[in-house]
Design brief:
The complex is a heterodimer. Chain A is an alpha/beta fold. Chain A contains 16 helices and 17 strands. In chain A, α5 packs across α7. Classes of the chains: A alpha/beta, B mainly alpha. Chain A: Pfam families: ABC_tran. Chain A: This is ABC-type quaternary amine transporter.
């Protein structure tokens, strides 16, 4: 994420929505802070009030009581229509108006804001390019001429039209197939890297929440916040059985997916230069009671060869004449799941980690296991 | 468009659904029938060799005057119906007034359910001081308000609520959402209702002659009274052809005024 934060902080204070004739409030005394420039995902079962809570922010639903502060300003004191022009809103399937072209759909808010024609045309072109649709082809199309994924992209472009600091997204990718959905999710993350909006994203799909959220708010009935934390923490240490149930059986696997190799304690092995004496290396390995050494190339510090202790028994000459080449490495940005995948794919029991082309350490099955255990431990202590 | 349709990950070309609009050449069928029937009428009348008094009733200026009256009745009553039905239909689909909808529709139903001739005659009796033209207009309006009103309501109700919420959600005012989203999307159904209203008005305007408000109905009543079958038939056929023509114009409007992309 860039340092240039395009979003603003949102504070919900004691927010309550009570519908007449219903015993329990739909949203019951919700207080939370949404940090500027973060994607916060509201996740919870149907009827948990997650969508209602989101709609309270742009006042599509008027709260019964409580405060909404957007960038410190009281949202309830503004005119609702004007407030909403500066909060992007994306719904399932984009919510595009079928009788308007793509350009007209995107231009709605700029037109309300009375931008001049040239500025609107330029903005439409810019936004379409940003969401990966060629302006020359798509400006004059009607929504039904687009695929579901394309409609969704236009929906995002429309929400971003007047460059609002806040974006509300209500299960936007619910109606597209899994492959398109994954692609749209990746695109949203890439877009967010550039824009750093404050995004509130509603979904009932926990995996989507883990993938997109800087923070996840797990909501139960009445929009009660059961847990509000970073995905890794929720996965490592679910607050209660409700959250555990929501994560599902394979929480540990999901944790692998949100943890980066650079963030865990790596194993260290003996590292040697290519011209090191083989007998010397063998002795050293025997002393340390280790089986493997990594040969790093001179200067760059890149792992180039593996040698194992048995091979070096009675050997002489430079160590680079022995062992085999390093065929698989992983980067610090890889997830633990990718590391595991690399381990299973390669013949070796260990995979070297390379950050900026330099060797940093090793990942073994044991490393992964240790990492998960220590993440759980850390989360519990918090 | 429903979300289910939108979910289909296949791009399709915009083509108006065939059931809603039909092929372009279908629009030529009605004018062809009108021309053929018109020519047949002229030939038939000449062949029947009308007598002097019949001939007087069939003189072009006289027939054109009646046609003008008929169109006037139809046009004025339709304008009044639209002026009432569209705002009323919009109001009855807003939050808060929705509960009144069944009652209003009930009243409109009575207007159409009662025999047209009865409505006209009763109004003439009840309103003896009002000019026959306006009594006829009132009767026509009461009689034909239902299709326009009901279709306005149905048209607005079938607009996907998610689209209305999307409009409000991005900061469109309620009025702007109505004018830019709801009404355009309701247009095809509203036009169908207006077309029905128009055709009803053309037909029922034939009864205006009973209270002396003129129109092509005069040819029919004169034909009956004076046993001038040629005049009777000519009047009837002219009304039928007029109704067909108006219906055809309605079809054109439905085809070309529907919003693109839908």
């Amino acid at each position: 994420m860039s340092d240039d934060v395009g979003g603003v902080q949102i504070d919900l204070r004691n927010l309550t929505k009570r519908y007449p004739g219903q015993a329990k409030p739909a949203v019951d005394d919700v207080t939370m802070t949404i940090q500027a420039g973060e994607i916060v995902v509201f996740v919870g079962p149907s009827g948990s009030g997650k969508t209602t809570t989101m709609k309270l922010i742009n006042r599509l639903i008027e709260p019964t009581s409580g405060e909404i502060l957007i960038n410190g300003e009281d949202a309830r004191k503004k005119k609702a229509d004007e407030l909403r022009r500066h909060i992007g809103y994306v719904i399932q399937a984009g919510g595009l108006f079928p009788h308007m072209t793509v350009a007209d759909n995107i231009a709605i808010v700029p037109r309300i804001l009375k931008w001049d024609r040239k500025r609107i045309a330029e903005r439409v072109e810019e936004l379409l390019t940003m969401v990966g649709l060629e302006p020359e082809i798509y400006t004059t199309r009607y929504p039904r001429q687009l695929s579901g994924g394309q409609q969704q992209r236009v929906g995002v472009a429309r929400a971003l039209a007047a460059d609002p600091p806040v974006l509300l997204m209500d299960e936007p990718f619910g109606a597209v197939d899994p492959i398109t959905r994954a692609k749209l999710q990746d695109e949203l993350l890439a877009l967010q890297d550039e824009l750093s909006k404050t995004i509130v994203f509603v979904t009932h799909d926990f995996d989507e929440a883990v993938k997109l959220g800087d923070r996840i708010a797990v909501l139960a009935e009445g929009s009660r916040i059961v847990q509000y934390a970073e995905p890794a923490e929720i996965l490592a240490n679910p607050a209660d059985d409700f959250v555990r149930g929501f994560i599902g059986e394979n929480g540990a696997m999901k944790l692998l997916n949100v943890t980066r190799v650079a963030d865990i304690d790596l194993d260290q092995a003996l590292t040697v230069a290519p011209e090191a004496d083989a007998a010397e290396v063998h002795r050293e390995l025997a002393d340390r009671d280790e089986h493997w050494a990594v040969v790093l190339d001179r200067g760059a510090g890149r792992p180039v060869r593996w040698v194992n202790r048995e091979e070096l028994a009675d050997a002489s000459g430079p160590v680079e004449d022995f062992g085999g080449p390093v065929d698989v490495t992983i980067s610090g940005r890889s997830t633990l799941q990718e590391a595991l995948e690399a381990l299973l794919r390669s013949d070796a029991e260990l995979v070297p980690v390379v950050v900026k082309r330099r060797y940093r350490g090793l990942v073994t099955l044991n490393t992964v296991q240790q990492a998960i255990a220590s993440l759980r431990e850390k989360a519990k202590r918090r | 468009m429903t979300s289910a349709q939108a979910a289909v990950e296949v791009a399709t070309d915009v083509a108006p659904s065939p059931s809603a609009t039909g092929r372009a050449w279908h629009l030529l069928i009605t004018p062809a029938i009108i021309v053929v029937a018109g020519v047949a009428l002229v030939i038939g009348v000449n062949a029947a060799d009308p007598n002097v008094s019949e001939r007087r009733s069939l003189e072009a200026p006289f027939v054109l005057k009646l046609l003008g009256q008929h169109l006037n009745l139809t046009a004025v009553s339709t304008v009044i119906v639209l002026a009432v039905a569209i705002p009323l239909g919009v109001m009855l689909t807003r939050k808060g007034a929705r509960l009144a909808a069944p009652a209003v529709l009930g009243v409109a139903n009575i207007g159409q359910g009662a025999p047209a001739i009865g409505v006209i005659v009763i109004l003439a009796v009840v309103l003896p001081t009002v000019a026959p033209f306006w009594v006829a207009i009132l009767a026509l309006s009461v009689y034909s308000v239902l299709p326009a009103l009901r279709n306005t309501m149905v048209g607005l109700q079938q607009v996907d609520p998610a689209l209305v919420e999307a409009g409000r959600g991005i900061g469109m005012s309620a009025m702007r959402t109505l004018l830019r989203v709801e009404l355009p999307l309701a247009t095809p159904i509203m036009l169908a209702g207006i077309r029905t209203t128009l055709v009803l008005n053309v037909g029922v305007a034939a009864l205006a002659s009973f209270i002396g408000a003129g129109g092509l109905g005069e040819m029919i009543s004169a034909g009956v009274k004076l046993q001038q079958n040629i005049v009777l038939i000519t009047g009837s056929v002219l009304i039928a052809l007029l109704a067909l023509s108006i219906d055809w114009l309605g079809a054109l409007a439905e085809r070309y005024l529907r919003p693109k992309g839908v």
